[in-house]
Design brief:
Distance between the termini: 70 Å
Number of domains: 4
Structural class: alpha/beta
Radius of gyration: 30 Å
CATH superfamily of the largest domain: P-loop containing nucleotide triphosphate hydrolases
CATH class of the largest domain: Alpha Beta
Strand content: 25-35%
Number of helices: 14
Amino acid sequence: MVKMNDEHMNIVIVGHVDHGKSTIIGRLLADTGSLPDGKLEQIKQLCRKNAKPFEYAFLLDALKDERSQGITIDTARSFFKTDKRKYIIIDAPGHIEFLKNMITGASRADAALLVIDAAEGVKENSRRHGYMLSMLGIKQICVLVNKMDNVSYSEKAYLKIVSEYDAFLNQIGIKAEGFIPVSGMEGDNIAKISSNMPWYKEDTVLTVLDKFEASKPLDSLPFRMPVQDVYKFTNDYDDRRIIAGTVESGMLRQGDEVVFYPSGKKTHVNKIEPMSEHEENGKANAGFAAGFTMTEQIYVKRGELCVKADEMPPLMGKHMKVSLFWLGKKPMIKDKRYFLKTGTMKAECYLESILSVMDASNLQKTEKDYIDRHDVADCIISTSKLCAFDNVAAMPSTGRFVIVDDYEISGGGIFTETIDNLHRYEKAKVMLREGKWEHGYVTVAERSEKNNQNPALVILTGAKDTNKKLFAKALERTLFDEGKNAYYLGIGSVIYGLNADINPPGEKENRSGENVRRLAEAANILLDTGLILIVTASDLTRYDIETIKLVTKSDNMLVFWLGDECTTDIECDMILKSNEDAIDIIRKRVEQITAR
């Protein structure tokens, strides 16, 4: 059972510029006694000193340039409490130039207050904000019709806004928890019912906030931690390698098995390394920076998504269906390269296709092959590399992304699903190859009969420090001495030869999906000659093996992991420790699948 004031809730407040969001927050802080001692009088004294009328908004707009411009530039967080719970209220900018910051400001909110000026009425940004809240998955929304004192507390003006905006929200699938007529300046219906509007006898802002339902604690969700960095130590014989990041959801303990996506590498948590005073010993909690050392030392890099092996895995793909809100000054077009960022991962991307485009201010759909500023689009985004992410409905924290254009955040949205399968690109390449393939007059069956062997692909993989190459070369020698046509091909021979165009000299080896695909294409050619082909590559994953199977179309394949324990998500035929018996075991299995 939740104790009094132990429950927390995040509330985002949005609305068109000058519709009074900051004033309402200031009034909430003042009326709930949540201000630091002397803060209210300090701001009033500052106003008197500068010969300016006091406004509750000044409690929020603490930055000098924000006061001078009279607008809130960035997202501000404030704290207040009721008898039921503690609140973090996020003031998201309403000015059209700062809409992009709202994506971040609203990203962790459980509910929203949307402010509309009673005199100005529903504006384009009012509708856009409503739609963005819908995209972010925020369904608990209360509309505050503010500045009722400026319309003489007119019920008619209030009902006009209620009718218009309620119809709009219904179109985007949102049912407002209420429409409250308020005056942030005068305090009407903020903390107590106003006598200035006897025709309204429902909730105040505080009572409707307490009616909102808090979302499940982040600790109760599946574990997600985007890898921020890997810290290595050398002083005083400290050989730790700490995987560090911020835990978006879930909880991690010593001994847990974790998988990193999209690489598929696995390890166990050796020890949780405290990164802040808020961490419990031996446990990493959601919302805090965390670090841990590994039992099995694997190579992990920034951008990977760490999850627990026994929990729901993320989605993976290069082609994602998304809902996107475009904020760039120039339209988003199909023939331009952008960058997609989610968590700590950054990948080059392009707009593959547009499924539908809509102006969020009026919900009018149009048919066009580009996305204009302030348009909302359902589209397919393709990335240059495999990405790990979540459906926003299942995991909001890792289900969102932003699009960067010319070093500026120009759009943001939510992931909904992957398209077709993980190997859409590879399938297209294989279909093109098969259509252009020139077969000779000698068939594979004839080669098999003459060589007295069936072609086969033998893959030896494992961690980087295992002697895969020595085993592969010894296997090649053994099979050759027995009269078999065998050939050894290491991935390095492909990377620095066939793949030299994607691995420039002097740069770190690039273990991209394209390297594996081209290795598989080389294997496909050699298998067509009837060979027993032996291939080595480090840390192959399930995705890599699926790529190789797809490209080679080989049913005659054996996959062996060399090492004491498998450290990726690969499904292999056998895990072999590095000893002399391994060669004999592999040789016997190869003879079984290649015998005529």
